[in-house]
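re the bet — no i am not wrong, look at it urself. input seq straight from the record:
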Amino acid sequence: MEDNRKKKAVAYWLLAGVFMIMVQVLLGGVTRLTGSGLSITEWKPIMGALPPMSEAEWNTAFEKYKQIAQYKILNNQFGLADFKAIFFWEWFHRLWARSLGVVFAIGFIYFLVKKYFDKQMILPFVILFILGGVQGLIGWVMVASGLNDTSLYVNHIKLAIHFISALGLLCYTLWFALQLLVPKEKLAYNKRLHNFTLITIAVLVLQLIYGAFMAGLKAAIAAPTWPSINGAYIPDGIMQQSFIDHPINVHLVHRTLAYLLFTLIMFWFGAATKFAKERSTSLLFKARWWPFILVIMQVFLGIVTVLSAPKIVFGKVGTFEILAELHQLVAMFLLIALVINIYAVRKRVPTT
């Protein structure tokens, strides 16, 4: 009983970390949607926790921003007040990341001193801290890709890497918590359903990558129509353009993957329901509903977000930005739901 209590305490701390990572991803979305990501042109992991504290410091930060293409080409009408507005979101995004590190560090030290950890937990925690540090480094590499005389925004491929690595950190933390929370008798065993879930997650990850491409390339405004893409279901000249860099082609792939993912989850839900009915005490019995409900919500949000793209006002938070954030939030919930389900359905019964 004492061991279970300790494991639950550690698991709830990890789940708090999952929540904070989700908030961090959403703050990254707000930062991108408001065009704030390049407002801080330096990476100071320690000293950068504080914003400029005087008018002179604000002017120095603003002058550094004036040296990059985003200001020269896009925001040259900005005054200091405008700069402060976009600076806030990037600073808060970085501050939350620091806070996340502090929460994990303090919790780790507390549980270590209180001897809540067993030997099997130490290595996963070391990996967790390494992943967190790497994520911060990837974030700076992404920001640095836009700090030049030619780029208006960060590189969309590096944006996708930053986004997916954050979700990888989220899933790793969640998996760790599930190991401590879910008793073995709640697990089910079915190789075909396990593999089906794994394939569905792979398609979702690819879809999330293309969602990041959509965001980085501002592709929503390139085709703010549905069900067609600017009047055509298959745009002209798609084979003459890149499927990674061209907004219309990225839009086409993102939509196609959405239809594929929706279809997969409908079939997956049928297979999971058939299997779970015989195992009403398993985690799968309840968890199978979550991807089914969330994918319906996600498709709907994707459609209305695209249709609202003409309402984009750069630097402002309006209808499109709110819908885009909801779209991103539900995508994270969908990923979490599928990860819980693949945890719940194992490939084979353990031999020991």
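see?? Residues 80-113 form the longest helix (34 residues). told u. also The beta strands are 188-189, 345-346. so pay up
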